[in-house]
Amino acid sequence: MTRAFNFSAGPAALPDAVLERVRDEMLDWNGTGASVMEVSHRGAAFEAMAAQSEQDLRELLGIGDDHAVLFLQGGATQHFVQVPMNIAHGASADYVITGHWGARAAKLASQVCSVRIAASSAQGGFRGLPAAGDWQLDRNAAYVHITPNETIHGVEMHGLPDTGAVPIVADMSSTLLSRPLDISRYGLIYACAQKNIGPSGLVLLIVRRDLLSRAPDSLPEIFRYDRHAAQRSLLNTPATFSWYVSALVFRWLREQGGLQAMAQRNQAKAAALYAAIDGSGGFYRNEVDPAARSWMNVPFQLRDPGLDSTFLAESAAAGLIGLKGHRVVGGMRASLYNAMTMAGVGQLVDFMADFARRHG
């Protein structure tokens, strides 16, 4: 069997080495005589795996004791609501909108707390970032919410603003583990797993411990981050298979040289693809401000939209899948998460050049 190069935005490709290990352990995990999906999450084998996975994640990201690490469920969309339920009780929150998912997060948060739009690039069609000097921040806000990378529009923040004493909350679903990160700059980070981490069904949450005390007593236990932290993410049955595969990804990342090595690869992959788009003589175009271009998600349009279906059919036949753009923006999109190799990007670049020669 020949595996395709999968450019899907999520659920996304996983490293071949991880999938091969999952295959080999599917019927007998860790000598238990059963699959990891069949053993108790409160048994010694699973608890040991869970503890090791947290240690590996802490070492990869340099997470200190002042932040708790939680392995939760629900997808990022659930936590659009659960975050303000836990840390915005009785206060408003500032939201910076740089694309579809930031807007969605603000809309859902407004159902449980007062939301202020501190800045937005909607007027420009989310092709860039609002200037930092234009952010209207409230120093009394419960937090400032950002979406550092917008998967649909391909817009990325490459730096953090100064928010003073107001904690930054970040939806890092599409960038967590793609490069080193200064965790101390964040009050709370959440990320769904199905991009750079593992299979869908799992959400990683990294939260400053002092923020855990903000949960109101009226909030049911199952929604309280402090209760999940106290039970080491085992308050209820977790997404055991997704957690296990994510643990394998953490070990794989360490074997690759850690997040600094991944950052170099990811930046090189993105640079190669943007160079192909910019050097196509207008056959392909990316409409994002170059200063805000994403390393992870590269949307692009063909000069003739009538060729879109042909491009997708021919690229799939060439073993390049998952390239259809999101319905919000159309066109194409190549997602370059950690599991995508430079060889895969090279194949895409070569295909794009050949397609332009034949259809230009």
Describe it.
This protein is α/β, with parallel strands linked by helices. It has 2 domains: 18-255, Aspartate Aminotransferase, domain 2 (3-Layer(aba) Sandwich), CATH 3.40.640.10; 258-359, Alpha-Beta Complex (Aspartate Aminotransferase, domain 1). Helices cover 35% and strands 16% of the residues. The chain contains 10 helices and 14 strands. Strands 2-10-9-8-5-3-4 form a 7-stranded mixed β-sheet. A hairpin with a 4-residue loop joins strand 6 (149-150) and strand 7 (155-156). The two termini are 33 Å apart. Pathway: Amino-acid biosynthesis; L-serine biosynthesis; L-serine from 3-phospho-D-glycerate: step 2/3; Cofactor biosynthesis; pyridoxine 5'-phosphate biosynthesis; pyridoxine 5'-phosphate from D-erythrose 4-phosphate: step 3/5.
